[in-house]
Amino acid sequence: MLNALDAVDWTRLHGAYGPVTDAPALIRAMAGPDAEAAAKARRLLAGAVCHQGTTYSASAPVVPFLAELLAAGATHHRAELARLLGELAAHGNQRTKHVAAVRAAVTAEADRLLPLLDDADPGVRDGVAFALSQCPKRKRDSAPALRARLGVETDPQTKARILAAVAWLEPASGLAAEALSADQPAPVRAAAALILARSDRPWSAAATEAVRAGWADGEPLERCWWWGTAASPLQDLVAALGKRGTDCAAVLVMLLQSSSAPIRQEAARASAWVVKVHRAARPLLVPVLATALADPSAEVGELAATALHEAGEAARPAAGALARSATVPAIRALVHLGDPRGPALVTAGNVLDVLSGVTGRPSGPFIAYDPAFGAALAATAPAESWGNSIRWLVAAWGPAADAVVPRLLAGDGLAPLVVQALAAIGPAAAGALPRLRTAADGAGPLTERSPFRVHHVEERLAILRIGGDPGPALDAARAALAKLHDRAPAEGYHHVPYDDAVALLDGLGEHARPLLPEIRALLTAHRDFLGLARAAWRLTGAADEVTPTVRRVLELAAGGLRQRTPQHRGDQAADLAAELGDPDLVPLLTPLLADPTPRCRVPAARAVWRLTGRADGLIAPLLKEVTPRPPGYRWAAAFTLLTEMGPAAAAALPELRGVAEHPWCPFVEDFERSPIGGLGHLDDAFLAAARTAVAAIEHGQ
């Protein structure tokens, strides 16, 4: 036994951790009498030759020895060895240059593996079935053998996995449909339903009944390669059924009424994913989720509330049940629906959890201010302990949020987002002025060495917005503009305080008028200072002073469309071009329509439309923003422009109708990444914008 071990030059073979010179000793230990030592050796060898689905130069050479050990009935842990052979050949493995050789090595052992389908150990039968299924070149021999074993297999878990192996090799066979029948054990029926859900075959009432029976008393399937990488086989079933929409919803409705609390928990958790993805599933699931809010299991109730939060406007009929539930997820759902019972349930103890679940985007609040939010936030810990999403929300609320000023000032320091919130609140935050002035006066306007930056931009602008004093911001802007003169002609913006100068000028508004001479001098010397051109335009309205800069930046932006992080803001140049109203800029805007990213397409299309009133060449760039899944981040602006264009955008109608009638939410990828709940409301906004655009184009409304 293992006589050929020493004939292999193991020093030239590598595994996950380098040369596998210890492979002979590990394989011999696996054949030894000590079960514990054999298990340790197997784990070490498996980690080296099949590490997280990656195979190596040593992987194929170990296969014959593993097969030899497996065939030797006295070897310890034979089931694990059989599964290891399957994992080495598995089709989900990383595509390294060794994959083909490894699969060929396992295929070469098929004749030694086939008799083991009748082994006394069900684990060995299971593992061998897995290994054979991953060797399709021997399907002619292995498929009949697997079908024969399936017909006599008595172990339910093993039978379920052999069924999966046969379906893998023969996806067109009807074995899965036959295995749905009531005379099969629960694991087999559950496996058959899962296999059917993954296939292109129609879902059936028998499959739904198999799910009910299979999961009646809990999870029927033990985790393994066949049942995917989801949190559980049930989650894997829901993921596979998700594309079927209403079929999936019907299955979840049934499972939410299961007598098994763990199954109801899994079903409620899965419902949150399904209502994110499939629009038609939302109204079907909402009634049963509303009932589940009162489930004896508190976890089921909270998961049901989370799912309702994800359902968007479709959850409105459940508002009463959500109010009675009064858990944090239920309050989040109510708040996001704009139901007044939501704010009424907010307290100092739950407000941070509630608001952190419904906010998260700096572009604006998801919810309107309510005095209950201010009162609750005013009784919490200092704002320095709040999440950024809540600070953004307070800033978006602006002066209405004056009740939270004491909490914003309660910490030892003033974080940038806290300063922004104070500035947005305005004069009611006057108590912050001494600390803001201390920060602004604590150092000179600029850092002392390159890259030069302005100290405390936000604090200086906050002093203006709260106290009406433009002095600190004006002084810093003057110093920043002076430093911009030092930029070399071919140099970028990194070493000079350009961005800070623009932020200060934008914030100063009319108060920046004393700086016009410096701004004009810089525009003459540096034609790419777009932010300064924008400030000059707003202060003077003199198009002739800023048009040369807009032209230059449009040219530079067109040349940088393929850059990952373009230096020149074509989108801002396009917006300013639209304001200038000069049709001669259109030839410079047109190249930006070909931007492969969402950065410039919509701003350029908007500028061209407003300068010419013609839709030629604009439809395709706008559709690129709204038709992908997920859409571009300027989708709302694209729909707004299509609505503005009206009948002139008639060429977009077929694809826009497809967007408006699509059964799936387009933001699935965003949903899966985002920790913020209630994103079904974003889908509602997307759908409403699409329908508005279609109506405007069809009827000129």
Overall geometry: globular
Looking across the biggest beta sheet, what order are the strands in?
A: 1-2
Distance between the termini: 84 Å
The CATH class of the domain at 1-152: Mainly Alpha
Task: Give your account of this protein's structure.
It is a single chain. The chain is mainly alpha-helical. The chain has 40 helices and 4 strands. A two-stranded antiparallel sheet has the order 1-2. A two-stranded antiparallel sheet has the order 3-4. The model has no long low-confidence stretch (mean pLDDT 92).
Structure at a glance:
The chain is mainly α. The strands form two sheets. The chain has a two-stranded antiparallel sheet with strand order 1-2. A two-stranded antiparallel ribbon has the order 3-4.
Short descriptors:
two-stranded antiparallel sheet; mainly alpha; 701 residues; 59% helix; globular; Leucine-rich Repeat Variant
Write the topology of this structure:
Blueprint: E1 14-15, E2 18-19, H1 23-31, H2 35-49, E3 50-51, E4 54-55, H3 59-71, H4 78-89, H5 99-107, H6 110-113, H7 122-133, H8 139-152, H9 156-169, H10 175-178, H11 186-198, H12 205-214, H13 233-241, H14 246-255, H15 261-277, H16 281-292, H17 298-310, H18 319-325, H19 328-337, H20 341-344, H21 351-356, H22 371-377, H23 388-397, H24 405-408, H25 416-425, H26 433-441, H27 457-467, H28 471-484, H29 498-508, H30 516-525, H31 530-540, H32 543-559, H33 570-580, H34 586-589, H35 601-612, H36 619-626, H37 635-645, H38 653-661, H39 668-673, H40 680-699
Antiparallel strand pairs: 1-2, 3-4
Helix pairs in contact: 1-2, 1-3, 3-4, 3-5, 4-5, 4-7, 7-9, 8-9, 9-11, 11-12, 11-13, 13-15, 14-15, 14-16, 15-16, 15-17, 16-17, 17-19, 18-19, 23-25, 25-27, 26-27, 27-28, 27-29, 28-29, 30-31, 31-32, 32-33, 33-35, 35-37, 36-37, 37-40, 38-40
